[in-house]
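A reminder from the course coordinator: this example appears on the midterm review sheet, so study it carefully.

Given structure:
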């Protein structure tokens, strides 16, 4: 048997990416936060000796794309060679989730239903009969709780059975009689032109009524006149748009199925998560908890990072002393080895101690579902600065990494909203920059300055957003789903943290170690002086910093984590506390590196998503804002 392709399809926050992780060895970015999967994830899996390509598609509410993400999912389903679909259904929102199932049934492709989050459904007093659902849909239905890996083995068995010939084509739900007559008329016209097209003639007949813009040209020409007549009659009879009519029919069918397979049992008491939400989303107390969240977030990262840093400091310094005898006898070899060692020391002694608790805490709050609440609360603030709706998701993601945040701007329909959000994202302190801030704060300033710097960065983002959005005429609306609070799996959070740390080490080690070696060679050949001289007008005279730090800014453009490593190498030290800088100089330096050019990878993605205009505006804005901000801090702190 050749390699078959399986696509995971479902509504946002149904647990697709978590289920993808259960089935594969590769960990997709998962969270209890709508909009996590922006690009598709792919992994090869082996089931009883057969190989499958497993695809995790971005979550969509229907096969009627309204933005770039939904369009990407629709086109992949319609144009790719998919052998079966795993429809991930949120059991706690059964009737709504089944609307997608009904639409997939129209498509006429093999489907397996993964009835996910059954534990959440039971908490809300909803009891679902999977066997009854399987009987109605005529396809395999597998109960799962993906967060805890439950149902994975059963799902694998159903995949193998369908591959071996078990029927998995869902039954076509019948709509009202007059609508079914119209659909049959269109099917008879469409069938002769189905060669080479994917999907059923019924799917195209319904789409011709609901959303004719999605029809292949060969079909739209044939049924145009008849379709227009049907639209006129449906509008007259139902007194609503045909799109709403079809949506209502699907909704009715989904409700009907949900009622047949589920029953409510009396709940003893209101779940604690709902009571907690009353406080977390309260118009006043919600912001108190939000401030407390950020303070706790910073304090834990600072405290844990400092402890880890102190624990590894002595062993790293002892390791560095091993190479010291080479310096007078073989200077070039020593500069090479010492450069590599400085890179190693920067990774494990400076960056990772703060990056590790940062990633773990972020993962934990993602899985808990609190980040969606943060987005909800921040949305109210963003309205005041001129950013609205769909800009919330990419901005929240930006606190983790600018790259997925920029990809998430695809959710934004309005081009000017997208441009402004894309330009603002590089100002948001990503995990790499937060690591730099906390590493320097731990060595010099203490946590208070770290918090003050963070507050200033938020003010810069607000002011920049307000200034740029003055040119916007009309904001875009956005309905944000607030998922249920869930107790995160600590084991799973640790696994996700390890995956992200491993990805960081894999991606960053070459840059960090290689960059440090190159800087060592620069020092040996005295090339670093030329870079420092070139940057001296800014570094020395405007920022009031040692000119030796000029070269660190160049490497910081490759990756922000390199800044810390290169500072050690440029100043020839093994610990940040040895830096010959005052507290004021450290603050000025941190402000500048937090706001100037984004890293190279972000720069590339920015170009891809926003084009030359976006990159140019982002570059000019970041340099001006970074220089002015750092200069103001220099004046205030009398550096």
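Designed residues:
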């Amino acid at each position: 048997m050749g390699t078959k392709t399986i696509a995971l399809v479902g509504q946002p926050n149904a647990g697709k990416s978590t289920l993808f992780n259960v089935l594969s060895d590769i960990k997709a970015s998962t969270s209890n936060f709508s909009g996590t999967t922006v690009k598709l994830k792919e992994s090869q899996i082996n089931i009883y000796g057969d190989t499958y390509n497993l695809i995790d598609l971005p979550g969509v509410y229907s096969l009627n794309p309204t933005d770039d993400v939904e369009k990407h999912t629709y086109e992949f389903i319609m144009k790719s060679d998919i052998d079966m679909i795993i429809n991930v259904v949120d059991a706690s929102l059964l009737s709504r989730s089944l609307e997608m199932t009904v639409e997939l049934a129209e498509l006429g492709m093999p489907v397996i239903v993964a009835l996910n989050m059954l534990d959440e459904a039971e908490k809300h007093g909803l009891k679902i009969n999977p066997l009854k659902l399987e009987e109605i849909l005529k396809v395999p239905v597998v109960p799962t709780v993906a967060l805890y890996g439950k149902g994975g083995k059963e799902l694998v068995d159903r995949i193998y059975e369908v591959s071996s010939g078990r029927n998995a084509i869902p039954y076509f739900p019948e709509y009202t009689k007059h609508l079914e007559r119209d659909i049959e008329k269109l099917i008879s016209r469409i069938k002769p032109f189905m060669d080479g097209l994917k999907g059923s003639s019924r799917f195209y007949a319904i789409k011709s009524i609901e959303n004719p813009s999605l029809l292949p040209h060969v079909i739209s020409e044939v049924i145009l006149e008849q379709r227009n007549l049907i639209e006129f009659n449906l509008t007259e009879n139902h007194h609503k748009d045909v799109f709403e009519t079809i949506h209502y029919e699907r909704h009715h069918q989904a409700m009907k199925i949900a009622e047949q397979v589920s029953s409510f049992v009396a709940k003893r008491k209101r779940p604690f998560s709902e009571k907690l939400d009353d406080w977390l989303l309260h118009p006043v107390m919600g912001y108190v908890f939000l401030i407390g969240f950020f303070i706790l977030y910073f304090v834990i990262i600072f405290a844990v990072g400092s402890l880890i840093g102190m624990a590894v400091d002595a062993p790293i310094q002892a390791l560095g002393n091993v190479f010291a005898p080479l310096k007078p006898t073989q200077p070039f070899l020593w500069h090479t080895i010492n450069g590599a060692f400085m890179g190693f020391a920067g990774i494990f002694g400076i960056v990772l101690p703060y990056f590790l608790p940062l990633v773990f805490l972020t993962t934990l709050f993602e899985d808990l579902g609190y980040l969606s609440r943060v987005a909800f609360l921040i949305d109210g603030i963003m309205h005041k600065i001129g950013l609205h709706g769909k800009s919330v998701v990419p901005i929240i993601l930006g606190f983790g990494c600018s790259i997925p945040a920029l990809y998430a701007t695809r959710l934004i329909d309005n081009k000017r909203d997208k441009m402004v959000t894309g330009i603002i994202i590089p100002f948001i302190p990503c995990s790499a920059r937060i690591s730099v801030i906390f590493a320097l704060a731990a060595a010099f300033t203490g946590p208070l300055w770290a918090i003050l710097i963070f507050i200033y960065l938020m003010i810069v983002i607000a002011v920049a957003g307000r200034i740029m959005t003055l040119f916007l005429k009309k904001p875009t609306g956005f309905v944000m789903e607030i998922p249920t609070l869930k107790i995160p799996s600590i084991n799973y959070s640790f696994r996700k943290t390890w995956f992200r740390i491993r990805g960081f080490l894999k991606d960053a080690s070459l840059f960090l170690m290689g960059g440090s070696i190159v800087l060592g060679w620069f020092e040996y050949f005295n090339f670093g002086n030329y870079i420092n001289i070139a940057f001296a007008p800014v570094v020395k005279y405007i920022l009031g910093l040692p000119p030796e730090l000029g070269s660190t800014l160049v490497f910081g453009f490759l990756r922000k984590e390199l800044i810390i490593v290169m500072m050690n190498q440029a100043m020839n030290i093994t610990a940040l506390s040895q830096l010959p800088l005052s507290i004021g100089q450290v603050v000025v330096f941190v402000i500048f590196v937090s706001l100037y050019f984004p890293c190279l990878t972000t720069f590339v993605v920015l170009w891809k998503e926003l084009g030359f205009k976006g990159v140019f505006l982002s570059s000019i804005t970041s340099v001006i804002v970074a220089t002015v901000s750092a200069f103001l801090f220099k004046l205030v702190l009398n550096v």
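DSSP finds 26 helices and eight strands in the chain. The longest strand covers residues 4-10.
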